[in-house]
Amino acid sequence: MYIVNRFSHGDSGADGLEGFGQGEALLGEPHCLDEIEDRLHFFTEECDYLQGFHILCDIHNGFSGLGTKMAELLHDEHPGRGIISWGTCPVLSPYRDRQKDVYQLLNCIMGIVRLSSHSSLFCPLTLNSSLGLRPGPPVALPNVLYNTEWQYHSSAVLAVTVDTLTAAYRTSSCRLSMTQLAETLNFCGRKVTTAASSLPFPVGPSTSLPDSLFPYLRFPPWIPLSASGGQHLSEGGRSFSQLAVMRGVSVDPHISHNPAGTRPRSALHSGGSNEDVLQCYLQTVFPGAVSVANVLQSQCILGPTFPQFFSPYVTKDGFTMQEPLKDPPDVHSIPVLAALQTTPALEHTLLSLYHDLKKVDVRRWPSWFTAGTEESDFQEALNDLRTLAYCYSNRPGHETDDSD
């Protein structure tokens, strides 16, 4: 662990890390860089099986610059290893000043472009419905009654999602390494992904996975957690590639509520393992997408400090009941279904940031550039953002032009 004492996380002004350039410059200081390199070498030399690295950093402030320099360092020091970066952002207050709005937008654009270029995959993580100048209302999660003003709550949702998705290559039963998974998802330059989660996944204590997924054959049960708003619905749920991880549904898939002697209700009920069922579900809802399914029998265990923000329909084991419980217990574990996707919705998400910035006269905010980012570098990143957005277009022959 290396602690930066000069800046206070979450603060603004002199004690906060407000600009992308500040974060970049911080890791460029010899003392800081030497300390981090020494600690990295120590832990990597002790590691028996090094798949790669995770980078988790704020994307809306100067830590996006720090995370970018860290990704560059890992990319240079450990070529061939996987790097998956997660850019987090808390639920933003609707009562912010204009400077914070513009700074957040500038930092997000730089962070998305630079982190994705040096990572195997990059995923924004937030309960905001947008990362632009108008973040909109935070997402609503069925059976989770979280306080949008408490980062203690929002970070818990994101942590469960990351823990579930990364279990696909962290557990002994995994079939793909981090690098193999990234190569499966990031083809055609699509390094930016979206995360989505259903927690707790709505399943009863004796319900099989086919019966649980059957009501969601039109739209998946998960909620986007990457500031894509409602685009997953307007895009018809399309996806180029995806990883889906289910944990905590251990009922035999052959146990279903089909009447004896009748035909299966759907292809999901045609037999096979739970992993076969999830793979069949992905192919049904997202035809033509490259899909990887992973199923873990164990639920997500919630520690004693995890917030108890669940609805009265959730049992102590995380199962969802039809009627509210009279005396709701503390929830100790939950089933979770999470997805990591590259979708056409990302074209809209990234272009929205591009067009928001085009409405801003950046010359009115010279203090952000004096922190260390050259205006020419920012203009290059802005062009790269637009190019990146068109990687997710599913319109044949679409070309970028200045009219966009």
TrEMBL record:
<dbReference type="InterPro" id="IPR029209">
    <property type="entry name" value="DML1/Misato_tubulin"/>
</dbReference>
<feature type="domain" description="DML1/Misato tubulin">
    <location>
        <begin position="22"/>
        <end position="167"/>
    </location>
</feature>
<protein>
    <recommendedName>
        <fullName>DML1/Misato tubulin domain-containing protein</fullName>
    </recommendedName>
</protein>
<dbReference type="InterPro" id="IPR036525">
    <property type="entry name" value="Tubulin/FtsZ_GTPase_sf"/>
</dbReference>
<dbReference type="GO" id="GO:0005739">
    <property type="term" value="C:mitochondrion"/>
</dbReference>
<keyword id="KW-0963">Cytoplasm</keyword>
<dbReference type="InterPro" id="IPR049942">
    <property type="entry name" value="DML1/Misato"/>
</dbReference>
<dbReference type="Pfam" id="PF14881">
    <property type="entry name" value="Tubulin_3"/>
</dbReference>
<dbReference type="GO" id="GO:0007005">
    <property type="term" value="P:mitochondrion organization"/>
</dbReference>
